[in-house]
Amino acid sequence: MTEPISQTLHKPASDEFRTAMASTATESTAAEGTATESTTLEPARSGAGQPPATRGRTSIAGGVVEKIAGLAAREVPGVHALGGGLARTLGAIRPGRVPVTRGVKVEVGERQTAIDLEVVVEYGVSIPEIAAEIRVNVIGAVERMTELEVVEVNIAVSDVHLPEENASEAVESRLQ
Description:
Layout: E1 17-21, E2 40-43, H1 62-74, E3 79-82, H2 85-93, E4 104-108, E5 112-122, H3 127-146, E6 149-161, H4 165-175
Parallel strand pairs: 5-6
Antiparallel strand pairs: 1-2, 3-5, 4-5
Helix pairs in contact: 1-3
């Protein structure tokens, strides 16, 4: 007869410490020419002993950052719309709600993000001043809500909205 194979799990002699960094340090002495190895040990960290806020990982999708940046940019007085001419034209043809992420592109890493905005400003506003206000508002909102570091906010002003365009937009919307 054959005996069943049993697998036994052995508990380590000490689970109080684990190897944290197995670094080999070579120390040579001119006289002896010997080498020694050293391993640094640190106390093991279990999830139960850690604060709840540090257990696990949080990832933030690019779409989330796009929405936050788009809303923050639209809050700045003097910003008429976001998005380029083609996107705005297609949006005018298809009536309905304007997508919050139109005119916003982001790159999101683990700890940092970069944001590109395409903006239409109102006639008469200072473009450098409004660009600075947009940057301040977008960076503040994204960093406050996501804790991602915003490394850059690139702004492309694609159009200037003229006051008389409001009247023609109202007539076009009634004709559809």
